Structure formats: C-alpha cells, structure tokens
Amino acid sequence: MRWLGYIRVNFNVASFTLIEGFSTAANKALALFANYPQHYQGAIIISPALELADTAWHDKINQSLKQNLANRALYLSLGNFAGNRLYFTALQKYVSSASNHSVFEDLSQKNYLSTAVLGFNNAVDHLFADLQIYRL
C-alpha cells in the first residue's frame, strides 16, 4: 500500500480515502476496508457476493470490522442473490454496535445491474450528507 502514500504526497487529493466495489469485486473491497483501517476511512460495498466466501473469511471480516470500524464510514447494500441475505444480516447485526457511520441497505428487490448505480448514489448521499460546500 506504499502507493497510497506516494499519491497523497505528490497529488492534491482529499485527506481521506474511500474504496468501492460491486458484486465479486465488493468482496475484495470489503476485505481491504476491514483489514487496512489505516488506509481507508470509508467504503461503498454494493451487492457483494458474500455467499462465495467461506466461513473463515466471514469470521475474519466480522472481527476486523467490529474492532476498527469506529470513526469510519461503511455503506453496504444487499443485492438480489438469495444466498447473500443470511451473510448480509449477520454482518449487519455483528457490526451495528461498532459504528454509527454505517448504513446497510436492502436493494434485493431491484434489478441486479441497477443496484450498482442506485447503491453508489445512496452511498454518496449518506457518506457526504454532513459535508458543507461553500461558495467563494
């Protein structure tokens, strides 16, 4: 993750870093967010393929998030694959006490492909809701 430091030093970027993922890429994004709290202050996880991961992966993610989710923002949406609901609900229940900056949204009644757009829009609305933009 040395490249993040290089980017922050050499480019005019925000003082926080978000990671985003959709479907199977959302599993990787969620793992990076959970396991590297020093690098990512927020995550937008849309319709992750949670049912593809094994029990050890879920246990590690749950523990990591519960330990280091405070003062970080997480948006996680449920897509319409039925096998994901159990894992989504368990994750929501497990980490709900760890952060008040987390949003879990059920988009399972929406078209799978439209959840990428809907989830991203909803996540940005939530994550930046208290940001004030001032005109000069």
From TrEMBL:
GO terms for molecular function: hydrolase activity. It comes from the Bacteria. It comes from Pseudoalteromonas neustonica. This is Alpha/beta hydrolase-fold protein. The keyword Membrane does not apply. SUPFAM superfamilies: alpha/beta-Hydrolases. Keywords: Hydrolase.
